[in-house]
Amino acid sequence: MARTWLSIRVELVHGRGEDIWPRPGRVFAAARSHSFLQLAQAIDTAFARWDLSHLHMFTLADGTPISMLNHWDGVELEGTVDSRTTKLSHLKPGDQFAYVFDFGDDWAHLCTVGAERIDPLDQLGILPDRPLPFWGWGAMPDQYGRRWADDDGSSTVPKRPKNTLSDLPPILPWWGPRR
After folding, report:
1. What would the DSSP string read from start to end of 1-34?
2. Are the CB atoms for 135 and 38 separated by under 8 Å?
3. Does residue 100 lie within any of the structural domains?
4. Which among 10, 88, 105 is positioned nearest to 53, based on CA atoms?
5. Structural domain count of the chain
6. Is 82 helix (H, G, I), strand (E, B) or coil?
7. Contact 178/163 with Cβ under 8 angstroms?
8. What is the per-residue burial (b if ≥16 Cβ within 10 Å, else e) of 105-133?
9. Which structural domain range is residue 36 located in?
10. Is the CB of residue 119 less than 8 Å from the CB of residue 5?
11. Is residue 82 in a domain?
């Protein structure tokens, strides 16, 4: 396949009232025929978001907002372009734009289109039907700041046991109580 796909680097800049450093990121392979909504869904999956009921918006460098129009309680924001139908073909090499997920916690990302087009078969080994990450780095913060299953996002960290693997079933040799 020819080098016709975009490479889009996405870095997490801010979320839950905090600037994030170092910035975790992912690099996506995306066809120019994919929609901005498909890119939003790929970003949310790659950045470990599990509550997907929140709004999203892309903002292009010229200020153009791209979002799902019907998710604004029937109110159309002036100049907003529909992310379901707007294709990534609007992007050019080197373009930078922002993506924000969840307008309460403002998970903000810097997106940069790579200078060169890519071949998805070279990068992914497949020809996917949606944007997919092919490279990444950094730990993803939990969407709600939780650090363990029963954490409410602000709980005190429980005391670390002497042997942190002692509560596991002895499926692997180093798990379970020491004999």
Report:
1. --S-BEEEEEEEEEETTEE-SSPPEEEEEE-TTS
2. no
3. yes
4. 105
5. 1
6. strand
7. yes
8. bebbbbbbbbeeebebeebbeeebebbbb
9. 6-137
10. yes
11. yes
pTM greater than the 0.85 cutoff: yes
How confident is the prediction for the chain on average, in pLDDT?
90
Cα–Cα distance between 73 and 68 in angstroms, integer?
Answer: 11
Residue of 52, 57, 51, 42 lying closest to 10 (CA atoms): 42
Q: Is 133 inside a domain boundary?
A: yes
Q: What is the CATH number for 66?
A: 3.10.290.30
- Interval 68-127: pLDDT, tens: 865 555 566 678 899 999 999 999 999 999 999 988 899 999 999 999 999 999 999 999
* Residue 90 lies inside a defined structural domain of this protein: yes
pLDDT at 179 over 60: no
Paired strand residues for 65: 59
Q: How many residues does the chain have?
A: 179
The tokens describing 92, both together, are 């050019």
